[in-house]
């Protein structure tokens, strides 16, 4: 079996990579929302976050790799979607640097049209992305939801919420709507919050 990153945000970053096109299929704030949702989901699944009155609160003490526990503990109670939006772009940088340090990806700086700075992301071992995609695909189509690996279930929930075409094209999201809802319910409140934030962003852009 191919080794994959341990953290859920790192896994979601790699799942957002399109092997055929050799580029990220989600960028900027949308990718940030997915990664923030993944970080919140990981903390929730591990019991480091709990929910009270529809808001995340600190649970069992533990590691806080992206600083979310500290932020939540130091704030008045706020809804999940607040924490999905907060510092989304800096979370993209943190996860990208994590993957680069672990030699999962290669990052090359370049300039578009010789003027605009951009980053070219390359996955060092495509088998890692295929392994993660296989886990998500199995969660979508395989065994009963209760027996699905929790991170694979969360990957499907987050990919659907974030509309990651590299994992779930629109046709697949529609075809497996009920199964996705079951996997989302199992994964906790963060994935629905990601969907809410992305829909609100789209509505705001449409009305502007």
UniProtKB/TrEMBL annotation:
Record Gene3D superfamilies: yeast vps74-n-term truncation variant domain like
On whether Amino-acid biosynthesis is a keyword of this UniProt record, the answer is no
- Keywords, ordered alphabetically: Golgi apparatus, Lipid-binding, Membrane
Q: Which InterPro entries match?
A: GPP34-like (IPR008628), GPP34-like_sf (IPR038261)
Q: Which GO terms describe its cellular component?
A: cytoplasm; endomembrane system
Q: Does the keyword tRNA processing apply?
A: no
* Subcellular location field: Golgi apparatus membrane
Q: What is its main location?
A: Golgi
Pfam family of this protein, just one? GPP34
The record describes its membrane topology as: Peripheral membrane protein
User: Which GO MF terms does the UniProt record name?
Assistant: phosphatidylinositol-4-phosphate binding
Q: What is this protein called?
A: GPP34 family phosphoprotein
